[in-house]
Design goal:
Layout lengths: L9 E5 L2 H23 L2 E5 L3 H16 L9 E5 L1 E3 L9 H8 L20 H15 L12 E4 L24 E5 L6 E5 L1 H5 L3 E6 L5 H8 L19 E7 L11
Parallel strand pairs: 1-9, 2-3, 2-5, 5-8, 8-9
Antiparallel strand pairs: 4-7, 6-7
Helix pairs in contact: 1-2
């Protein structure tokens, strides 16, 4: 039986990882420029991982070369998730984003809102929710409405630090929670499904043939319900886009 979409995101397939990163950098730049011009502020949540890292490097390189300069004084940077490690740890999402982008562009330090991974996970989640609500305007459901959220997807279908079968998936009212990670005794702090789905724009970046089987399950399924965390990010009043390379998209029927 032919698979059908369980929802209707915009899916774009690019030749390779470089093209995906270039397209995502363009989305970031256009969204930031428009939001700052219209509202004075652009609220974005960054992701960890190799593909977002390439996006950040492109944005920083463009800034350095003068090819594309962004209104960094009006950009407020948040993070979709973080491991419970200090900010200088090799696995810190903040460290990666700082080294590849934030330290290389003229963004005020006050505009960078990192998750305090060195704190107790529950305390860090509570503090980050307060910070998110303090800075980001809320929409009708009283959830902070980010302008853009960058996300990846793991081979198990997780996104941000929302892993299959973990309690964070059941959260319906909070914007941020502490959630167990895949490694024994590991913890993460992550935006919740309601917070992700409240964003104006959600952009998934997925590359590599190893992601193809799960991507097919996430984007195409015969089941009526959503089984994987990445399936459950559904903007309530915004755009959902998936940028894929040819390898990741190789098992999609008719390249939805």
């Amino acid at each position: 039986m032919r698979s059908t979409l369980i929802y209707s995101p915009e899916v774009r397939v690019y030749p390779d990882a470089v093209a995906v990163a270039e397209a995502a950098a363009e989305v970031f730049a256009r969204a930031a420029t428009r939001a700052v011009a219209e509202n004075g502020r652009f609220y974005v949540a960054l992701a960890g991982g190799s593909t977002p890292k390439a996006v950040y490097q492109l944005l920083a390189d463009d800034e350095a070369s003068g090819r594309r300069k962004l209104p960094w004084t009006g950009i407020e940077v948040f993070f979709g998730d973080e491991r419970c490690v200090p900010p200088d740890h090799a696995e810190s999402n903040f460290r990666m984003a700082h080294e590849t982008l934030l330290a290389r562009v003229p963004i005020p330090a006050a505009n960078i809102h990192r998750i305090r991974g060195e704190m107790d996970p529950q305390a860090a989640a509570a503090a980050y929710e307060v910070e998110l609500k303090r800075v980001v305007p809320s929409h009708h459901a009283m959830l902070p409405r980010l302008d853009l959220v960058l996300l990846g997807m793991g081979q198990d279908g997780h996104t941000a630090s929302l892993f299959p079968g973990t309690p964070g998936l059941q959260e319906t009212s909070h914007s941020v929670v502490a959630n167990p990670g895949p490694e024994p005794a590991s913890w993460r702090v992550t935006l919740t499904l309601p917070a992700l789905s409240a964003a104006s724009n959600v952009l998934f970046l997925v590359i590599g043939a190893e992601k193809a089987p799960m991507l097919r399950r996430v984007l195409q399924t015969d089941a009526a319900g959503a089984s994987y965390p990445a399936q459950r990010v559904r903007p309530t009043a915004g755009w959902l886009r998936w940028f894929l390379d040819e390898a990741a998209a190789s098992q999609l029927n008719a390249r939805t």
